[in-house]
Write a structure and sequence with these properties.
Helix content: 40-55%
CATH architecture of the largest domain: 2-Layer Sandwich
CATH superfamily of the largest domain: Bira Bifunctional Protein, Domain 2
CATH class of the largest domain: Alpha Beta
Strand order of the largest sheet: 1-5-6-10-9-8-7
Mean pLDDT: 87
Number of strands: 10
Order of helices and strands: HHHHHEEHEEHEEHEEEHEHH
Distance between the termini: 90 Å
Largest sheet: 7 strands, mixed
C-alpha cells in the first residue's frame, strides 16, 4: 500500500504541475483529494493491514494529503497571478496617447434668452407664471374681450382640437387664469413664458409654433408712464444702454389704449419688437376686478424675434433645425 500511495503522490504532483487553468486544477483536487477521490479509495483498503502497519500508512497518507494541498494552493496562486497579469496587459492604458475630446452641451439659445428675460423682470419684482398649452376658448378668447364672431379672432388663425379646446395662440390666457386665482387681490405682477401655436406658413420670419413672454401688472394707480418705464428698462438691459424706444398707436382687443413698441437699429432703422397697452376694463371686470378701482398694463413679445435681433439671426427656422453648427455658437453666450 505504501508503494500505491507514493505512486499516487507522484502522479498527482505531476498533474498539478502541468495544469494550465483554475478549472482544471479544481477538477484535479476533486479527483485526488475529494471524498470519492483516489487517495480516499486507497485508504479504504487499510482494513486489511496489520495493527502495526495502520498508523504508519495513516501517517503517510496525511503527509501526502498535506503535500498535495500545498501544491494545489501554490499552483492556484500562480494561476491567479498569471490571469491577473494577462488581464492587466489587455487593459493597459497608453497615457501618451492624446485624450478624447468630449463635446459638452449647452442651453438652447431660446432658453438662454428666456432665462435672461426672466432675470430682468424678476429683478423688477415680477413673478413667473405658467399655464396649459391646450387651452379652452374661454381663456384664450372670451375672457380677453374676444367673444364669438369677434373679428379679432381672425388675427390668430388657430389649431382647434374641439369647438371648445385649442392650442393656445398666446400666453395671455395665463394672465387671465392668474387674475382669477388672485380673486380680486392686488398687486398682480407676472410674466408668462411659454410655447404658442398659430396656423401659419413656416418661413424665415414665421413659424406655426413659437415662444412668447407676456407680462401683466394690475394694481391701484397703474399708468401708461409706468408701462413706458418698465419697457424702456427691459430694452436697455437686453439690447444695451442708450437703445432708443418709441411707442406707436395700435389695436389689441384686450388692451385700450394699445401700442406697438419699436427699437432703433443702427442699420435697419426702427423695428417693432412687441405689443403692449393698458388692460381693457372688460378684461379686468371678467376676472373679478373693479375697473373703477384698479388699472393695469400688459405686454407681449416673441422670444424668437428678440433673439434674432440680439444675435443677428436671419432665419427663425435655425432655432428648430437642431443644426449643431448653429447651436455651438451659443455655448459661451
Amino acid at each position: 500500500m505504501r508503494e500505491r500511495l507514493e505512486a499516487l503522490s507522484s502522479e498527482a504532483a505531476l498533474a498539478i504541475q502541468q495544469v494550465t487553468t483554475l478549472e482544471e486544477l479544481r477538477e484535479l483536487k476533486v479527483k485526488y483529494l475529494g471524498k470519492k477521490g483516489e487517495l480516499t479509495g486507497v485508504l479504504r483498503g487499510m482494513g486489511s493491514l496489520s495493527p502495526e502497519e495502520r498508523p504508519v500508512i495513516g501517517s503517510l497518507a496525511n503527509e501526502i494529503r498535506n503535500h498535495l494541498d500545498q501544491l494545489i494552493t501554490g499552483k492556484e496562486a500562480a494561476l491567479q497571478a498569471a490571469a491577473l497579469e494577462e488581464q492587466l496587459a489587455k487593459e493597459t492604458i497608453d497615457v501618451t496617447l492624446p485624450g478624447v475630446k468630449r463635446n459638452v452641451g449647452s442651453l438652447h439659445p431660446l432658453h438662454l434668452i428666456i432665462e435672461k428675460i426672466e432675470d430682468i423682470f424678476v429683478g423688477m419684482g415680477f413673478e413667473v407664471a405658467e399655464g396649459p398649452e391646450v387651452e379652452t376658448d374661454k381663456y384664450n378668447f372670451e375672457a380677453l374681450n374676444m367673444p364669438q364672431e369677434h373679428p379679432a379672432r381672425d388675427m390668430q388663425d388657430s389649431f382647434y382640437i374641439t369647438p371648445e379646446l385649442l392650442l393656445r395662440t398666446h400666453t395671455s390666457s395665463v394672465q387671465v387664469r392668474t387674475l382669477e386665482k388672485k380673486e380680486g387681490y392686488v398687486p398682480v405682477r407676472i410674466i408668462c413664458p411659454g410655447k404658442v401655436y398659430r396656423r401659419d406658413d413656416d418661413d424665415a420670419t414665421h413659424s406655426h409654433q413659437f415662444t412668447q413672454i407676456e407680462g401683466l401688472v394690475v394694481d391701484r394707480g397703474v399708468s401708461m408712464s409706468e408701462l413706458n418705464g418698465v419697457l424702456l428698462s427691459f430694452i436697455e438691459k437686453i439690447f444695451g444702454e442708450g437703445t432708443e424706444m418709441r411707442l406707436r398707436p395700435s389695436y389689441f382687443p384686450f388692451t385700450e389704449p394699445s401700442v406697438e413698441v419699436d427699437i432703433y437699429h443702427p442699420e435697419k432703422g426702427w423695428i417693432e419688437i412687441l405689443g403692449a397697452g393698458m388692460v381693457h376694463p372688460r378684461v379686468l371686470e371678467k376676472a373679478g376686478y373693479n375697473p373703477e378701482r384698479y388699472s393695469g398694463f400688459a405686454f407681449g413679445m416673441g422670444v424668437e424675434r428678440i433673439a434674432m435681433l440680439k444675435y443677428d439671426i436671419d432665419d427663425i427656422r435655425h432655432f428648430y433645425n437642431n443644426d449643431l453648427r448653429f447651436l455651438r455658437q451659443f455655448k459661451t453666450v
